[in-house]
Amino acid sequence: MSTETATLTRTERPDEQPRRVLRLGLPKGSLQQATLELLEKAGFKFSVSERSYFPSTDDEELSAMLVRAQEMARYVEDGVFDAGITGKDWVMETGADVVTVADLIYSKQSMRPVRWVLAVAEDSDIRSVQDLQGKRIATEVVNLTRRWLAERGVEAEVEFSWGATEAKCPELVDAIVEVTETGASLRANRLRILEVLMESNTQLIANKQAWQDPWKRRKIENIAMLMEGAIRAESRVGLKMNARKDDVEKIVRMLPAMRRPTISPLAADGEEWVAIETIIEEKEVRRLIPELKRAGAEGIIEYPLNKVIP
Hints:
3 domains; disordered N terminus; D-Maltodextrin-Binding Protein, domain 2; Alpha-Beta Plaits; alpha+beta
């Protein structure tokens, strides 16, 4: 398989340099919508037609294809893609030799890691991993599970599950290893978590040869920086307000800013009034705004953020 992964296209003008294109793999399936929404906040808009695996994008330097997250790391390792977005779990499961560019803490339902857990039926006699000796376990992450069991000196039959894994225990298998964000689905299927094998999160990974190319590396690093900025912005909002100079010190002490808030004089009343702007955690807003108002702040405006770059 070819490792030359940059597409060169020529424009109509013969004196122009060929335009370089980075091939990016995007996860199809459960992670797809969350990834596309995050990329849009990061500044990269992708449009996906029904039944198409090749999203269009407003960035001329990007070419994208949708593939299953489970397969992504291998395609990146082989140079089919210069970079890809997948789970840390699937990089470990496939053993792919790739560059981890960034840990992106988001999943299909939330902005937090997921867990791969070992679960058994609620009324199962299995109480520890040692009780699985000689038992049957179903999972999508066969290699990861086998390595985890071997590290604990347990020999069990680990079989690949094509889906509906939670429904297989205890009728078809003694235990399962399954991914969960909240544990709600496991509880709904009357399963009990026995152990946590690992926490996993989404990652931006790169092909090793592509990472050595200065242009590709810069492009991949830019994508990582903007996606991380979009993730930081998810839980934060901006606040603007006006205040009398006499009240500024009291108001500033109340603000849990990333750094010191920005304070600037108002054009019309610069001697008496200032504008204050800051970024705070959104969960603080409902408590903070009434207190700011009582402390003398006026014209308080809350606004959403797309990206926060430290």
